Structure formats: structure tokens, C-alpha cells
Amino acid sequence: MTATAPSPMLNKVPEIFLSFWIIKILATTIGETGADFLAFRMGLGLGGTSLVMGAALLAVLALQLHLRRYVPVVYWLTVVLLSVVGTLVTDNLSDSLGVSLFVSTGVFAALLAATFAVWFASERTLSIHTIVTRRRELFYWAAILFTFALGTAAGDLVAERLAWGYGLSAIIFGSLIAAATASWYLFRVNVVLVFWIAYVLTRPFGASIGDLLSQPTTSGGLGFGAAPVSGVFALGIVSLVLFLTLRHRRAVTAET
How far apart are alpha carbons 89 and 10 in whole angstroms? Predict the structure, then answer.
């Protein structure tokens, strides 16, 4: 009996449409508000929340790595959990260990740059349209984790350490995202570079929006609370992912 060769891995990352960026921003907001809700409202603390979310991430990431193609529900659940864990990594460093946000921002920027350097040296590309091997996917998820940790540190640095506030921080990072997008449309700056710049910036942008909505008015927020904000944004993610799942199934059916 001849052993059946494993089916080739299809690209494990979705196409980059507007829905991708909307879900990404919603996920980053939940990363901020969800971590706060579990750690402080549910009383798990940073340590307990980190253990629970870390275990959940490992389980879902193992499933994501096992799949041979892009599955919207699993992919976006991995992103949401990475967002929460990335937030917790930065929060543990700054709140539990007293690491300066200037230091953590610099360290995570260096780690992300090193990940990109090793990834490019190994694969000669950083394009997300070619995530078709296990090694490239591991590089991809490592980069995503560092973008979330870096974005959290940079967002907290601007909004809290520099005391510019959540609203102004959202405007600053939103403007930088717009500038990066315009650089591609107007000057055709390398699309892979623009994608990763925008991916990093959407983390502090979404986190600033989450903090603005959830934090009490005494801290510069609007006081809606972490639980309601997380719930509304989670509902938005679920709705969009269900839509993408149905569209993806129709596309797969049409191909077969």
C-alpha cells in the first residue's frame, strides 16, 4: 500500500480587504478591554489571566497550525487571543516587574525587527500571501505576537506615560495609519512594508479607542466599562467572521 502524501498547504492568511482591517481593529480593542476585564473585574489578576489566556492561545494556535488552509473562525480566534496575550505580556512587564514603557517599547521593536530579519533571511519574503509552509506560518505568528506587545507598549507610552490621553493617541495613530496607506496609493511604497507598518499601528489605535470607551471619566475615558465595550466589539467580530466564513465556503465550493 502506497502512503498518501499530505495535501499541500494553502495560504493560511485571508485576503486583505476592508473587513480584514475592521476585524483587526476590533480584535485589538478586545485585547485591551478583555485583558482588563478578566484581570481586574473578574479578579483573576494579571498572573491568573496570563495563565488562562496563555493556555487558550496555545490550544487554538495548535489547531491553527494543524489546519492545511485558511479557516476564518480559527484564524481570527487566534488573532484575538494573541491580542489579549500581547497586552498581558506588556502589562506584566510594566505593572508587575516595573519595566519602563520606554524600555519595553524599544525591546519589542527590536524583537519584531529581529523576527523580520530572520524570516526574510530564511524565506526571502515577508509577504503574507505566501504563508504556505509551517516555518513561514511560525514566523508570521511570532511577528503578530510582537506587533501586539509593541503596539500595547507604544500606545500606553503615548496615552499614559506621556499623558497625551486616549483620544489624542487614537488621532495620532489613526493619522499614521492614514499616512502609511496614502504612501502606497500615491507613491507606491512597498506594499509589504506598508502592510506591516499599518499592522503595528492598528494595535495602539484600537487599544486607545478601547481605553477611551472603557476607562472611567476620572482617567480620561468615557466610562462605558470594559465588559460592555468588550461585548459589543466581540459581537462585531463574530458577525463579520460568520459573514467571511459563509463567503469563504461559497468560494471553496465554486472552485471544486
Answer: 31
Poorest-pLDDT segment among 32-46, 147-161, 225-239: 32-46
In degrees and rounded to multiples of 5, residue 172 shows phi and psi of: -65, -50
Return d(Cα 26, Cα 148) in angstroms, integer: 13
Instruction: Name residue, grid cell 480566534.
Output: 77
Average pLDDT over residues 12-29: 88
Helix (H, G, I), strand (E, B) or coil at 50: helix
Give 151's pLDDT tier (boundaries 50, 70, 90): confident
Residues 6+ apart with CB under 8 A from 89: 50, 145, 149, 152
* Global confidence as pTM: 0.88
Q: What single letter denotes the amino acid at residue 214?
A: S
Closest listed residue to residue 46, CA positions, set 142, 151, 152? 152
**pLDDT of 79 higher than 60:** yes
Q: In whole angstroms, what is the distance from residue 198 CA to residue 156 CA?
A: 18
pLDDT of residue 33: 85
As a 3-state breakdown, the chain gives helix, strand, coil percent values, each rounded to 5, of: 80, 0, 20
Per the rule left: phi > 0, alpha: psi between -120 and 50, beta: everything else, 124 is left
Q: How far is CA 84 from the centre of its chain?
A: 8
